[in-house]
What we know:
- The complex is a heterodimer of chains A (124) and B (203).
- Chain A has helices at 8-34, 42-45, 65-88, 90-118.
- With 124 residues, chain A is mainly α.
- Chain B has helices at residues 2-23, 27-47, 51-75, 80-85, 87-113, 132-140, 145-166, 178-183, 186-189.
- Chain B starts with a helix and ends in a 14-residue tail after the last helix.
Amino acid sequence: MVDLSQYLPILLFLGVALVLSSIFVFAPMAVARLTGAHKPDAEKLSEYECGFPAFEDSRSQFDVRFYLVAILFIIFDLEAAFLFPWAVSLKEIGWAGWGAMMIFLAELGLGLVYAWKKGALEWE
Amino acid sequence: MIQALAFYLFAALVIGSGLLTITARNPVHSVLWLILAFFNAAGLMLLVGAEFIAMLLVIVYVGAVAVLFLFVVMMLDIDFAELRAGFARYALFGLAIAIVLVSEMIIAAGAWSAGSLELAQRIAPTPNDMPNIQAVGGLLYTRYLYLFEAAGFVLLVAMIGAIVLTHRARSGVRPQNISEQVKRRPQDAVRNINQPSGQGVEL
Lengths: 124, 203
């Protein structure tokens, strides 16, 4: 069973982070309104990009290769997620569990070899 | 007491960010709210004692899936006027999904009120003296070994499928060739010439 009291510092940390971040967001707004510096106009509210007007719409399509990299990242991420419980319970699951994980790793290693040979990891 | 407070905090944040996910006008904001919902769902998992699942939610859902969502949303060439025009076409389909979800919720609530589960009768009751992740590992790699290997094959198929679908060889690009680049000597690349003055340079 989980001893939840171990997580109390994290909860406190979350609370402090929440309070601090809302102070940093709302205090400048309140100060600006109270000191009379809050005078928005169209020019101030327009988006600012290194001194230029924004060139184009930010919703442009970009290369599908980013997607490929992201998918490969997710797959190896999941593989790593399977490794954690395996490593912790290695004593109970014995050689069968060990062998199963080796087969699993070999499958994904095969996938990695395929990706490598196909040049999916290449970036020019 | 603190536990109850934390539960209400996380549950309220999950519901709130879920609502904002579906009502946000900007799809990118929508995905960001979804990430917040995932974080709070991880907190809820932690409260019921499923530590490993909570950490997986953060690593896999927040770290990978939500980022992929963000990718897809940013990659799509979203035209808002066109998006609204398509609403009527998909309304019937969306309504069907909504009805399915509502009936699932009603059935789940009915099952909940029909009586509690006999938790002691489970195939694998949670052992009290070992951490969650160890119990998961002890089951996953013994009783559910074949399912685990099947999961490995699903991952392999996903990887190969993604490569087959999105990878294409490009011509006219100059990819890196590390060994060629490292092997290159100065005498292959540099030429010393004795240039007489008053004449053009021959390249």
